[in-house]
Amino acid sequence: MKRLGVKIICFVLIFMSLLELSHISFGQEKKEVVHKIKSKDKKIALTFDDGGKIKDIEDILDILDEYDIKSTFFLIGSWVEKNKETTKEILSRGHEVGNHSYAHKDLKTLSKSEIENDLKKMKDAFTKATGEEIKPYVRPPYGSYTKDTEKILYNAGYEKIIMWSIDTKDWTGRSAEKITNEVLSKASSGGIVLMHLSPNIHTKEALPSIIEGLGKKGYEITTISALLDENKNKNIAGITYLEFLNNLMFYIGLEYSSTAQEVVEKAKNVGIVEENIEKLLYKKIKKEKAVEYTCKAINIKPLESFGSDFTDVPLNMDNTGYLNAAKKLGIINGKIEEKNNKLIFGYGEYISKDTMNILLKRIEKYSKKF
Fold this sequence. Notes:
Blueprint: H1 2-26, E1 32-34, E2 43-50, H2 54-66, E3 72-75, H3 77-82, H4 84-92, E4 96-99, H5 112-130, E5 137-138, H6 147-155, E6 160-162, E7 166-167, H7 176-186, E8 191-196, H8 203-216, E9 220-222, H9 224-228, H10 241-251, H11 260-270, H12 287-297, H13 320-328, E10 335-336, E11 343-344, H14 353-361
Parallel strand pairs: 1-6, 2-3, 2-8, 2-9, 3-4, 5-6, 7-8
Antiparallel strand pairs: 10-11
């Protein structure tokens, strides 16, 4: 009987150990401090801390929009409470927000309960302002934390403590040129760039040259979430605006161009691109934009309607009418989604080289060259 009891105890201990191992291997997201994220592709994240003057932040949002860039903002709760509309606008423009504390105090100087209350206060302020949940990422003020602080943050529900691999030191008031050089000289795959929203600094002046410089180096600028999730952007390895437009010009009867300037001049002469296209040349082009340019190049007018054959296409986007027209003419087909048997286009995905070749092959009959 005594031996049986010992066996039962041993079995229970082994079973509990296996459960613990199972939790470690297959349980929740790994909790860790992140300075840089492993990436097979040339991807990098621009992040913005604190809060600041509304005009400065709106200027930064406009610049990001101009280049079609999404970023991660680490906001302070006290700023969020006073600037609810701007906080909502950051989200509405497609960016994400992590927790940078409520009062921006050095967490190393606070007790466990003070840290927990501070983070919760920021989280509640954000939800009240936007109606959304904050991302499960936290960036300690001043990048200051200890091992004990780390445990408190994890236990408070934050999966990742997001630090940085490139510190622009923009808060010191350094020039836009120095900020830009700091980023471009230290850029690497999976890098995280630290910038600020503080007033009277030169971040917004540096931003266009940072974005263009990273683009020329072949970097895709994205969010922390996209960097962490390898499966989130399966079509990230697409082609650039420049490559697509050069091929499109060839398919409508023009010659391949040897310089970016030639491509831009031809595309503008044909009347298919925006005035600010130079700022997008080294970004990946999405499927819907490629179809819009293709339709414009062969003089297909948008087909206005109250809906779309594709269930994943928003109704009121600028290119919805072009997608409807291209579908009617058989230039695009879409694909049937297995789960619910609905027709989808792949809206928001980057176009691959194979898909581009198929698309352009289908417009041969509209082209002067073929």
